[in-house]
Structure prediction request, 132 residues.
Amino acid sequence: MTTLFTRIINGEIPAQKLLEDEHYLAFLDIRPVRPGHTLVIPKKEHDYIFTLDAQTLAGLLPFAQRVVPALEKVTGCKRVGVMVAGLEVPHTHIHLIPMNAIPDLNFANATDTPAEVLAAMAAQIRAALPQG
Prediction:
């Protein structure tokens, strides 16, 4: 069965995409824990991060790393936390969460966010991404 994230990759479901290449995609979470909360996924549909092939796994964090400076600039956070839970959607994904303190990583704080707010945040982050 095709996952929600594969449907986003294929353009069947809209998403605020931040960065994309042939292997990975970064986009805003629609229920962010904090403003700028980003999901990073391999385009290859696979359920569990620790059973990914070595090459895909090895490329996931370096791809995510490309988004972090823009998240820091736009949100003004102290750090970007990384969370891997992997239970919500059966497609490997990591959460990049702008944070100032450990409690900022609490998923109980996730809230539905209006599409226009996500679009504005995505535009700011995309503008802050390094070019090239």
In short: The chain has one domain: 4-128.
